[in-house]
Amino acid sequence: MNLLILEPGEISQSGEVVLADGRAAHVLTVLKAAPGHEVRIGVLDGPRGVGTVQAVDNGAVRLLCAFAPDLPPMPRVDLLLALPRPKVMRRLWAQLAALGVGRIMLTNAERVERHYFDTHVLSPDCYRPLLVEGLQQAKDTRLPHVSIHKELKVLVEDELDHVFDGGLRIVADPGASTPLPALLSRHPADRILLAVGPEGGWNAFELTLLQAHGFQAAAMGRRTLRTDTACVALIALVNEMERDGSE
Amino acid sequence: MNLLILEPGEISQSGEVVLADGRAAHVLTVLKAAPGHEVRIGVLDGPRGVGTVQAVDNGAVRLLCAFAPDLPPMPRVDLLLALPRPKVMRRLWAQLAALGVGRIMLTNAERVERHYFDTHVLSPDCYRPLLVEGLQQAKDTRLPHVSIHKELKVLVEDELDHVFDGGLRIVADPGASTPLPALLSRHPADRILLAVGPEGGWNAFELTLLQAHGFQAAAMGRRTLRTDTACVALIALVNEMERDGSE
Asked: What is the pLDDT of residues B89-98, one digit of tens each?
């Protein structure tokens, strides 16, 4: 936990917050903070800042908060992901938030099993704490926006233009002739939407649909990776190439 | 399982293998292979090829193997990794093998807790099946070579030159001024040794030691990532930049 995330409603008018959960335990046992010490804090979807320990009482910690005037930047990458199996999806939540993703759109595809959509891993009760864990790891406060789509066609044809307009759309496709770094340096973009298929890949109809809606195919290596490994690899690559290009 | 990995000793003189474990179950229930069908196979640290189902008997499968004349290429990346906590290391094994890593050198550092070295996760009984799982995912046969080093100084000063000579040595360091993609394009190399520190980072002594032994510092983003996320991101970046540069 490199940044203590607070919910907006937890902070009093006077800028104080009392923690009594795992965050208090972290402050006391890992950071070993005592009154007068400062800890890094951030408000979910709000600014980062510093919390000064005011008092410790029976395992609870009272902090006085001071915040920076600006918000952390919005992530530049959005993800359109064919829903992987629940075990893999569970592993992915915190990592996606840590890498920095604006939107996570989970979708059906031919090679996604229908029952994957029934899992607890897709309920906010399960994924929200995991996303917050990732933010706390990466010192970010921008909670990814999650949406679940049972029809790829409806998502791509009717909904996508409303949530992602004007940036670069990329579909990861092992059969593509252009490597991802080459595509990225050819098309500098402020925002990138990355479509990642199921482990068996998008089918021909799905690839055609995506390409008809502006997605450009790019390849990453010749190795077949598990969805979580592939997502981390692709997002890291996009983030780094962007960063490098902008300097 | 995209490639069925066989141990060299399992294959008879006549090129046959009888499977009765999870691999047989995979062939029968996932691939639904019947006599005459072909499945992708590979010999650990050997060639890939095709196995033709000869017979199915009581859950066991007999394959006749035919192999390609060449071996899969050696991975270009070696990893020197400050040992992460056991839970994270467990998650990492299969992903490292899937991404392709020649050597995995696990080392101590100031910010590595000593008891991490006592875990079952560092025993071959635990990690070998996970590495094989990663190879089966990525259709590779090259088993990463694993070694465990309780003294970073001894590893770097006395041992490293024997196992890694002549390539590019990189240490991931959030404080470095050169982004990793820039460093990679400035120094094209056949082999790359990547040093990844503990979650709290290498200390000043460790960084100086590494740099005195030829490691060049490179940065990757400003986000603090969990070790497993960071390793996947860094290796993917090295692999892709290499691939891109060599085309």
From this structure: 999 999 999 9
